[in-house]
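re: ur msg from earlier - yeah i can do the (2S)-amino(hydroxy)ethanoic acid complex, just paste it... oh wait u already did. ok heres what im feeding in:
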Amino acid sequence: MSESTLPKSTLQQRIENHIETLSHFTATPGKGTTRLTYSEQDRQAREYIKQVMQEYGLQVREDGFGNIFGRLEGSIPDAPAVLIGSHFDSVPNGGSYDGPAGVVAGLEVAKLFQENGLTPKYPLEAVAMIEEEGGRFIGGLLGSRSMLGVISAEEFAAITDKDGVTTIEAMQKIGLDPSLPGKRDASSIRAFLELHIEQGPILEEEQIPIGIVEGIVGLTQVQITVKGKAGHAGTTPMDRRSDALVAASKIVAGLPELAQAQGGGSVATVGRLNVFPNGANVIPDQVIFTADLRAEHEEDVQGILEKTEQFAYSFATDNIDVQIERQLYIRPKQMSEQVKNLLRGISDQLDIPYRSLHSGAGHDAMIFSDFTDVGMLFIPSRAGLSHCPEEWSDSADMERAVRVLYEAAKRLTEVE
Ligand code: HGY
Ligand code: MN
Ligand code: MN
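and the outut:
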């Protein structure tokens, strides 16, 4: 997919500038975007987002979890707001669009309201959420789950990163105030719209600029701890070893087959694995790793979870201990029919080709969908790549999606 050659509109240029600016707030310059939650890079990106919200005439607020809101007041006092946004954290060495595309869309929809002097009946809020990826604090979707009370303020405060730093300590380190109001009542939200990159190949292959998301995959993450016995790599005979890494490796190697056998689009991924004590001449006595398990239908999510646990426990012996901790479980979610129809109608009206898509990636929209009407748009990802430095999407596609969301926001906020 090559970049469009038409002259760039002001809106497209603004979109590009935002994406480019945010991409510089990374701990791994030259090796993709690494912007972990409450890091110095988070702080830099946050300052930029709040500055843009101010420039766009929005009332800027951060909640007690570090989520950022830019609000355009409506004419009906205390009315529920239409939220448009996504997350601004990243995976390690990820791309520049996963999350920021949706945050920028929220900013630019608000800017179009300002430019056109629109007064909505219901407030409009651009939102930038923390820790969707779970790159620093286990589980992910932390900003939306905390905001909506899916996890309590006490559970939030007890979460620590791999170095034992708590969310609260990490927030305070970059000047955030955890005592600010946190949980938001669902009655204060009228709808949630999210633009996201597809992170797959379909839209590009079919040359279709917009995907309207039907549903989002169910996902669960477990942490598996395998314990054995440390020993000398040279003097411990092979028949006297309790090697935690050998046992863990057999579990890891067996997961793809389990996913295949489960069917229903089931997938299994071990993305994070730590060996202890991690010495080249020491038999490992502990291995801790995550298993990310997903499927389109709930019975398959349940199925692959149970089979993974049975399989892992089958490697326990008198000398090898296997413990499993369930860290996240989210059933498959459907997007709102009303919002999907609205997005389809607007795309038709704007003469923008679209197709329905199912999301194999998780999104904040899956949390909002239990509390309000939710709609998601996808734009093409070059070569379907994401969660890597090569991630790229065309700002012309982003502009088209912003225009669809702008029209949707006008209807949902009942612009006068
Ligand atoms: O893991 C996901 O699907 C998302 O990128 N957090
Ligand atoms: Mn994302
Ligand atoms: Mn992601």
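cool cool. The pocket of manganese (II) ion (ligand 2) is lined by residues 87, 98-99, 132, 196, 363 (CB under 6 Å). ping me if u need the other ligands too
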